[in-house]
Design a protein that fits this description.
five-stranded antiparallel beta sheet, about 15% helix, about 30% strand, 4 helices, six-stranded antiparallel beta sheet
Length: about 210
């Protein structure tokens, strides 16, 4: 019997779920995996073998992701993606194409092995569900401009010589301009959380957290 068949029958991760009614990444990931397992259990395959619970540790990461998605691809594929995960290789967020496996660390924390959208098995990573998996961010529209304020935490598309990726950031200043609901020309000054650098971007570079 395949690991995915066992997991589909078991149907839960026990004490890793929150006791209250708040939707958290761990419960969302669990529900997502269960749904996928139920619909594809007959032909389920894994890129990695099952790992023994309570005996696994984080593997060192030494490589960098080479290929990056454009912000236009992110908008176009929004309806097909549910989660995004934070890569330990470059501290950037990527869409999750699928969850391949899960394991429990000595600390009791849950990790899942993810396949990033647009990447192959060589870029698969183990990520902490609580800290590095979340519901997919939503690109801001011109009509969202009035709701953006200094101090807001957002996901920002950053272009650099090393590549173009999405990073967590927060707004430190907004240079407002007069515009309609169909086009925004405001400039947003953001500070990236991972390296504390400051950048000026337009609204099209920003994504908000789901409501």
């Amino acid at each position: 019997m395949l690991w995915c068949d066992i997991f589909a029958q078991n149907g839960k991760m026990g004490h890793y779920l929150p006791e209250d009614n708040v939707i958290r990444p761990s419960s969302m990931v669990q529900s997502y995996i269960q749904d996928k397992q139920k619909t594809s259990a007959a032909k389920c395959t894994l890129s990695t073998p099952p790992l023994a619970a309570t005996t696994t540790k984080n593997a060192p990461v030494t490589t960098n992701i080479a290929t990056q998605k454009s912000k236009d691809q992110r908008v176009a594929g929004l309806s097909g993606m549910v989660f995004e995960a934070l890569s330990s290789k470059d501290n950037a967020w990527y869409d999750v194409a699928s969850f391949l496996n899960y394991r429990v660390l000595h600390s009791g924390e849950l990790e899942v092995r993810v396949r990033f959208a647009g990447f192959g098995y060589e870029d698969d990573e183990w990520v902490n569900v609580k800290r590095r998996v979340r519901e997919r961010s939503v690109p801001l529209e011109p009509s969202d401009c009035p709701m953006a304020n200094v101090g807001d935490s957002l996901l920002c598309f950053k272009e650099s010589e090393s590549g173009s990726m999405y990073y967590d950031a927060h707004i430190v200043e907004i240079e407002r301009t007069t515009h309609d609901m169909n086009d925004c020309s405001c400039i947003f000054v953001v500070r990236y959380d991972h390296d504390n650098t400051v950048d000026k971007v337009q609204l099209g570079n920003l994504c908000r957290r789901p409501m």
